[in-house]
Design brief:
- The chain is built from 17 helices and four strands.
- The chain is mostly helical.
- The protein has two domains: 235 residues, no CATH class; 105 residues, Glutaredoxin (3-Layer(aba) Sandwich), CATH 3.40.30.10.
- A four-stranded mixed β-sheet has the order 2-1-3-4, sandwiched between helices.
- Strand 3 and strand 4 form a beta hairpin.
- The longest helix is centred in the middle third of the chain and has 33 residues.
Amino acid sequence: MKIRTVVALAVMAFLAVLFAPNLLSVGATSRLDSAGALEAGHLWVAAGVVFAGGILTALTPCVFPLIPITVAIFSGRGGPAQAGGGAPRGRGRAAALTSCYVLGMAATFVALGIAAGLSGKAFGQALASPIIPLVLAFFFIALALSMFGAFEIALPPALALRLNQVGGAGFAGAFSMGLVAGLIAAPCTGPVLLGILAFVATHQSVALGSLLLFLYALGVGAPFFVIGVFSFNLGRSGPWMDAVKSVVGVVLLIMAVFEIRLSFPSFGFNLPAAPGIVFLIAGLVAAGVLLGAIHRSFHGSAVEKTLKTVGLALVILGFTARLDVENVALAQSPGGIPWVKDLDKALADAKVSHQPVFVDFYADWCAACKELDRKTYPDAKVRNEAKRFIAVKVDGTHESDALGKIYDRYKVEGLPTVIFIGSDGTLVKDQRVIGFVEPAEMVSLLKKVN
């Protein structure tokens, strides 16, 4: 790889670190809620809403990490010639494989959605188990090692030959990858699905709920179908493809670290949010790219392997440290909202002081929750309006019986959910936040509560 290309990649990495929090934003909100159309009996309207919501969800940065995974799975998998010496498989087989991938995603959405609707748990709550993030982390690490050339993801020849005889190797594998992809995307999709989940929980209509969840999943999978088909014949040869695979591997390892931290929240650097610290971290990441995180190979000399290892370590640790600094900066934001954690105590204090209360239900695995913390709550007008409230954060990262009772009490069906309680102690039933909202809308909602 030419030196100017390496430098360009280092500059891009530097900028990515600086703007990393903004790259994690979420676009789909409760505005795409289908509850109204379902209750009115307009099933076709509801179907269109959930399908469109799926497409919009797939286009948000929250789901972006699935793009390199999709490319990694399908690029260069035109594969060997068909049995009998035919021509290499073309776009027809690509469409079949990517269809299996999307169907795998749909199966995960339907299963999680129905379970959430019937149990009353928040969609994506499966990630509250510390085991699930570790399984995902293992999956990401294995796929990353494949991208770095440690091994090729392929079925054993004997099994592949048998599958060829019943429709071709890889269909089961693509479906399995889709199951995992659906689990990865689950935390990003809750707000759009609340209408379906509420309908399932209220009417116990599992069949109709399953159909709508399936349509939503097809909407999420539609862009990945296109990506899978067109990446199918990218090929694996050439330095450019090796560089692409290295970039994909880096992204996967960063995702693995993120998943591990969901199981071990104390794992981190606890760096101070001091001026210039972000630029220092960005410089270390850029240095990692220059050393060889992307353009060097693990198949070269011992020196080359060492440089690539050090470069990868700097890049991955740098992005992890960047998110740590962002979290510390949010926590130490001057004039920030003074959150309390004990809901019952907050309600008791509010009753004595005749103050209204607003409660933010969040989780570490919830992407839209982080967006509220990053963009909405730090806004000066939101902070100013929130001064007359007692502000409570209820952590839904890990399941518990006490948390389940709170969800039941306030009908929390997905995260993030923000509810408002008036100064008279009654829940404001006709307004709540589900998903991400802009600061102006949050200010408007707060002003309506007395």
